Amino acid sequence: MTGIAAAVEIRGVTKTFGTHRVLDAVDLTVCPGHVTVLIGPSGAGKSTLLRTVNHLEKPDAGYVRVNGELIGVRQHGDRLRELSERAILQQRAEIGFVFQSFNLFPHLTVLDNVAAAPVATGRATKTQAREQALHLLSRVGLADKAGAYPRRLSGGQQQRVAIARALALRPGVILFDEPTSALDPELVGEVLAVMKDLAGTGTTLIVVTHEIGFAREAADTVAFMDEGRIVEQGPPAEVLERPQHARTQEFLSKVL
Amino acid sequence: MSSTDALPLDPPLAAPPLPDLGAQRVLPLRHPGRWIATAVVVVLAAQFLHGLATNPFYQWDRFGYWFARPVILRGLWVTLEVTALSAVLGLLAGVVLAMARLSRNPVLRTVSWLYIWVFRSVPLIVVLLILFNFSALYKTLSLGVPFGPSLFRFDENKLATELVVATVGLSLNEAAYAAEVVRGGILSVDDGQRAAAAALGLPRWYQFRRIVFPQALRAIVPAYVNQLIGLIKGTSLVFYVSLLDLFGQVQTMGSTYPGDIVPLLLVATVWYVILTSVVSAAQHLIERRLAGAVRA
Predict the structure, then answer these.
(1) Distance (Å, rounded) from C-alpha A108 to C-alpha B23?
(2) In chain A, which residue's Cα lies nearest the Cα of B213?
(3) Which chain B residue has the Cα nearest residue A55?
(4) Which residues pair with A16 in a beta bridge?
(5) Given CB atoms, is A104 within the 8 Å cutoff of chain B?
């Protein structure tokens, strides 16, 4: 064990779909307050790895710790045992997740989308949650949309609401799964701006993205994944400018 | 091509001056066929209505006599009561069955599947007759049905028992269909919604009640109303378990006054049309409200 407590610690995480090994004993350590960007070709396992961090995906082997706490499992002698669904749900509330397709609740207003979780998980009264939701919406520049339904919003606005919704539970770690991939090019900037803003506040972020520019500007660590493994990782200046591994060089030469 | 090549080429002619086409509205295409079809349909409809009004076979005066007779209204009330009770009980049981069918517990899944399989396979009339004979054999059991007491609105205990048999039979049948409607509705909700609810750590019951089910309703309502209209008409089968619903009263009066059977059947027809129209109108309003929440 290292002296500094990691915000997120991934050890030996392995996941197989059928006969396809999507994650192959992945190790990754994320320091508190750091921004880690996962890049790599599609099918490399980036999204699956991200989803194991809040246990939306169950690893077949290995474990994830967030702020020192095992996620989705508990230690039982020298084995790991699955937690109850209720316990997993409680753990998830501490970890924000932003989806590629936003997944806002279409039958709730923007305000209710943001205010629902703190009330449902017993963290706030309805009044407190609504007040906080308005504050978060103004932070992502959408206070005037509080009463609107998600379908009335542009993709970029919906994703900003989704970020506010994730923030409403005051998570220590926020996971972004290709947050700008479903957006029209001219809307990508507004979402990345909110994310950069977040990166500056000391929240730990893990971001799966194809936006190399964002990785260069905002990441503390860039990890390149291929075929279920992390092939190479380090500061963006090293991984993006002087990649050591042939696969990384090949990938970057295509996307840059 | 080759034939035109052989022809001597005309010298290019100066195009005749065109009116300013850019400023004109485009004339719509005419549809003479539509007018012909309309004329045919109007003539046929007029002929039909004329026959309906003037043909003595229909005996509209007798129709008027029977339409709001107390005996018919009593039957109508029984139809409404049986429909309403089985619609609500069937839907509640259907939601439970659908949740069991979608659960991760293989025992619940199998039991639910078996129930739906059996009750969708057996004709409603058979279910009703089995229950009817069953209740004749076990009087005490039918009195033990939990919602029994509230049904003693009628003086004769016998009628209440038949009402129970009819309601139970229709509810059992309705539940199997409602379960499939509800299951389809739940499955129609985007997986991303469940993933988002799970990622936010929303408690399981909250996920279902506040996130998944309200969205499933948009698919459930039209399908269930369709089912409900079938149920309204299906209640006419309760006549065979000695319950005098709308159809039962019409049948009974028809055998007492054989000359009036046609106007009596028309009375039943018009009442069933009114009932299904009210339900369709309600569906329209509910759908508008559900859609409004999403599109507003």
Answers:
(1) 48
(2) A107
(3) B199
(4) A21
(5) yes
